[in-house]
Specification:
Blueprint lengths: L7 E5 L5 E2 L15 E6 L38 H7 L8 E6 L5 H12 L5 E5 L4 H11 L6 E5 L3 H11 L3 E5 L16 H18 L2 E6 L12 H5 L2 E6 L6 E9 L7 E7 L2 E4 L18 E8 L2 E13 L7 E4 L3 H14 L7 E7 L11 H13 L7 E3 L2 E2 L5 E2 L4 H10 L4 E5 L17 E2 L11 E5 L2 H9 L2
Parallel strand pairs: 4-8, 4-9, 5-6, 5-7, 7-8, 15-16, 17-20, 20-22
Antiparallel strand pairs: 1-2, 1-3, 9-10, 10-11, 11-12, 13-14, 14-16, 18-19, 21-22
Length: about 475
């Protein structure tokens, strides 16, 4: 083992962890071979220091005297992006946009930059592509503007120099992992470099009231690469999601200091760029004239937006010792749980059956309210009976076979009613009214009263999966 001279310190090039002597593995991030000698010791020692009062930058004023217009959002021109941001970009705000490679992050930001350039100047810094490559994409999607300035840079000092020259209203960095700061230890994209670059860009954004968007990479598990402090430093964290085999793309807010975090924006990725989808429900339904066994429709909430989606299942005898369980767009653990509930609390025997479960349109459904539709689709497939025409199922299934209530039931029913569905199976008590039949109605049916729900649907309340199967497949 190498022995360090007096006063030396060894630092991890990935996370910045420090040690008084060389070790093979970092004690913080557990990376191997990343410990290097960093010169004179700068280890932080615990101590108590007394700090006296100093000069203030701005005097404290009553909160009622603070001008809030400086923090008002300015629309980007992409309605679905503005929905997630809370109305648009706030001057001085720093937005971190993360997503998997090839999902369309650069295309989204290039379109937004071209729209913002219609009313102000925009500086687009690309560190992963050449300026000519970005120009080709801009020509394809029609994102050309005289006020959209483009530069290919990877040095932080050069980026700040471009900001000083152009004086933009919006700065886009694609991506923050490619920018390096001189005089800072660590490889490009490492934790130390990313932290220093982000801090410098944040300081510039706050000083100039410059709206800044940083593109971030993601790791294999889908989390944002780099130090966790990066997400704490920025004002807004957005995730850009989508299956590479589907045209649907979704922007989801994880953190937003200026707006809601329960909104989602939907886009259609095509040859000529991204197109906003104000009404994406129709994308997740099959187009067929007659119902078929193994399918059921539900309504899920993506943020505050209800989406009508279809669940499809296929159940058949298995020729393997261990039956197959294949899912696409659904949580495999929840599919296994619903199978166990049906096996235990109904007459269906699924233990020796191959089960395939998927969604339509590439949408991913992870909300517990999808459980009931999944159970109905499985029951429909194994019994070879299609669900009743125009029926939807909403509810969470418990291990005891009970159907639990979910939030936003009136909003979900209103969306299903708008899409033409006239029957619904929901958990007992979820409608917010006593389960008594309306005049002339049958027992177990009721009309739900809500501002956005006209009550034209026949709503059946059920307490367990047995009742739900009877309501969805017929008495």
């Amino acid at each position: 083992m190498a022995r360090s001279p007096a006063g030396s310190v060894f630092r991890c090039t990935e996370c910045g962890w420090q040690a008084p002597k060389w070790v093979g593995r970092c004690g913080e991030c557990q990376a191997w071979g990343t410990i290097e000698e960093a010169g004179a010791s700068r280890l932080v020692r615990a101590g108590v220091r007394t700090v006296g009062p100093g000069l203030v930058s701005t005097p404290a004023v009553p909160i009622a005297a603070v001008d809030a217009r400086a923090a008002s959002a300015r629309p980007t021109g992409l309605d679905e992006l503005d929905r997630v941001l809370g109305g648009g970009l706030v001057p001085g705000a720093v937005v971190l946009l993360a997503g998997e490679p090839g999902v369309g992050k650069s295309t989204l930001l290039l379109e937004a930059a071209a729209l913002v350039a219609g009313s102000g100047s925009v500086l687009y810094i690309t560190g992963e592509e050449s300026a000519a490559q970005v120009r080709l994409r801009a020509d394809r999607i029609g994102a050309i503007s005289e006020n959209l300035f483009l530069a290919a840079e990877t040095d932080l000092a050069a980026v700040l120099g471009h900001v000083e020259t152009v004086k933009p209203d919006l700065l886009v960095i694609d991506s923050v992992q490619t920018i390096t700061a001189g005089g800072v230890d660590g490889a490009p994209g490492g934790v130390t470099q990313v932290r220093e670059v982000a801090a410098a860009l944040m300081g510039t954004a706050k000083e100039r009231s410059l709206a800044t968007i940083l593109v971030g990479h993601v790791t294999k598990d889908g989390s944002i690469a780099g130090p966790r402090t990066l997400e704490h430093m920025v004002d807004v964290v957005l995730h850009f999601e989508g299956d590479r085999h589907s045209q649907l793309r979704m922007v989801r807010a994880v953190k937003n200091r200026y707006g809601p975090t329960d909104e989602v924006g939907c886009f259609d990725l095509g040859e000529y760029g991204l197109i906003g989808l104000p009404d994406p429900s129709g994308l997740f339904l099959s187009q067929r004239s007659e119902p078929v066994p193994g399918t059921c429709v539900t309504v899920t909430l993506e943020g505050r937006r209800p989406l009508v989606a279809e669940v499809q299942t296929l159940v058949g005898p298995s020729v393997l010792d261990v039956p197959r369980r294949v899912t696409s767009g659904l949580d495999g653990a929840r599919v296994g749980m619903v199978l166990a509930v049906l096996q235990r609390h109904t007459e269906f025997r699924l233990g020796r059956q191959d089960v395939y479960a998927a969604t339509v349109g590439g949408v991913r459904l992870t909300e517990p309210s999808v459980d009931l539709a999944l159970a109905m689709a499985l029951a429909s497939s194994v019994s070879n009976l299609s669900t009743l025409t125009g029926v939807i199922a909403i509810g969470e299934v418990g291990l005891a076979g009970e159907v639990r209530r979910v939030s936003g039931i009136a909003r979900r029913l209103a969306e299903a009613e708008r899409m033409g569905f006239r029957r619904a199976v929901v958990p007992a008590g979820s409608a917010g009214l006593p389960a008594s039949p309306p005049p002339g109605g049958r027992k177990g049916h009721l009309a739900v009263v809500a501002e956005d729900f006209k009550g034209l649907m026949e709503v059946r309340e059920v307490e367990n999966v047995r009742q739900a199967i009877a309501a969805a497949l017929g008495e």
